[in-house]
Write a structure and sequence with these properties.
- The chain is α/β, with parallel strands linked by helices and 380 residues long.
- It contains 14 helices and eight strands.
- The protein has an eight-stranded mixed β-sheet with strand order 1-2-4-3-5-6-7-8, with helices on both faces.
- The radius of gyration is 19 Å and the shape is globular.
- The relative contact order is 0.10.
Length: 380
């Protein structure tokens, strides 16, 4: 073990350190192992994206092979290893352009290993496709074992800029299923597998969320009168827009949602903003929006905001923000709740230095899941 905190593995490179924390936190829900993660990053030089990819790809391959060597007599152990492998594959490609062949291969392996783990899981995790125009959006429908309780309430979970459906299962999906909900996690426009299929990011992501509500509402095992929505980071902005436009939602949770994405990306200076992170995300958004230049990408991002939509949110709203979040300020959450006319609105801010104070509370899943799931149980 290193004597350095995993919160600051590479001084001056907050983006890379935050990705390690984000992955290591999934240990709480069987999506990673802390010792495996820390030992893997120990030999990676700051900024060496090729070295990062190779280290995590090797870890993912070893973990997958270990599962295969166990044989079918150890299904749950196989599942646990495959779950970890899926998140290690996700992490392997996180600093590569989505079009990089290595990132594409890692994404395919992530989905394959997660799917194999789902087959070994005692509770149903069903691979699904949400109809969306001329194409479809991939995801997973997760639920508990069949009971006499009737159709379950449903919570739809949306990840952020680089979030994927499989990761959101570990962040929230499993915890909600354990509390009696069915969960839909899916890749929308500009995310994960949907992006690989050519479905680019769009400001009106609420159209995709409404399509997801249509999809789950047609299922006989879903209580369509009890639909909740959770969005992380940019997914929180998307969720807020959906809350403003789709009256079928009983309640919405946003975590570290920006009020205005472009303003968020271009605000601040080197004293209070991680310039490397901003450079990374601007380049990433260029690819997610299918832009041929930085100027084109920035032009498209001008529509990613809540200035108009937030005034139409009338259903219950919970917002979670961290005081140590380097990407989205608490002030964004304060503005969203101030402008939303709903009378049932709650802002939770995790103080600096406390568990949950990082972006999307990725430093402490137990704290985030406690507050979020308790609110869902009270509203959905």
């Amino acid at each position: 073990m290193t004597d350095r905190s995993i919160l600051d593995l590479w001084p001056g490179n907050a983006l890379w350190s935050s990705q390690v924390v984000r992955l290591a936190a999934l240990s709480y829900s069987r999506g990673a192992d802390l010792s495996e993660v820390v030992s893997t990053v120990a030999g990676i030089r700051s900024g060496d994206s090729d070295g990062w990819y190779k280290a995590f790809d090797d870890l993912a391959n070893r973990t997958r092979d270990q599962s295969a060597a166990l044989g079918a007599d150890h299904r749950l152990s196989q599942r646990d290893l495959l779950w970890r492998a899926s998140m290690y594959y996700r992490n392997a490609g996180v600093f590569l352009a989505p079009s990089d062949p290595r990132a594409i291969e890692a994404a395919e392996s992530r989905r394959q290993t997660f799917g194999a783990a789902a087959e070994a899981h005692p509770e149903p995790i069903e691979q699904i496709e949400v109809p969306f125009g001329d194409t479809s959006l991939p995801g997973w429908f997760c639920t508990g074992t069949t009971s006499d309780a009737g159709p379950r309430p449903i919570v739809i979970v949306v990840g952020g800029t680089d979030g994927v459906a499989e990761e959101m299962y570990f962040a929230l999906g499993g915890a909600l299923v354990a509390r009696g909900y069915s969960v839909l996690v899916f890749d929308g426009p500009g995310q994960g597998e949907a992006l690989r299929r050519g479905v680019l990011a769009r400001a009106d992501f609420e159209v995709a969320i409404s399509a997801a509500i249509d999809f789950v509402s047609e299922r006989q095992d879903v209580n369509a009168d009890r639909v909740g929505l959770i969005g992380h980071s940019l997914g929180g902005l998307y969720a807020a827009r959906a809350a403003a436009s789709d009256s079928r939602l009983r309640g919405t949770v946003i975590a570290s949602a920006p009020f205005d994405l472009l303003a968020n990306l271009t605000a601040g200076d080197s004293s209070d903003t991680d310039e490397a992170a901003m450079t990374f995300f601007v380049a990433l958004y260029s690819e997610l929006t299918g832009s041929l230049s930085l100027d084109e990408a920035l032009g498209k991002l001008t529509d990613f905001h809540l200035r108009d939509a937030v005034k139409n949110i009338h259903t219950p709203l919970l917002a979670l923000y961290g005081a140590d979040d380097a990407l989205v300020a608490v002030a964004d959450g304060e503005r969203i709740l101030a402008d939303a006319p709903t009378t049932d609105k709650t802002l939770i801010v995790y103080p600096s230095g406390s568990p949950g104070s990082a972006h999307c509370q990725q430093d402490s899943l137990p704290v985030a899941q406690l507050d979020l799931c308790n609110w869902i149980e009270s509203h959905i």
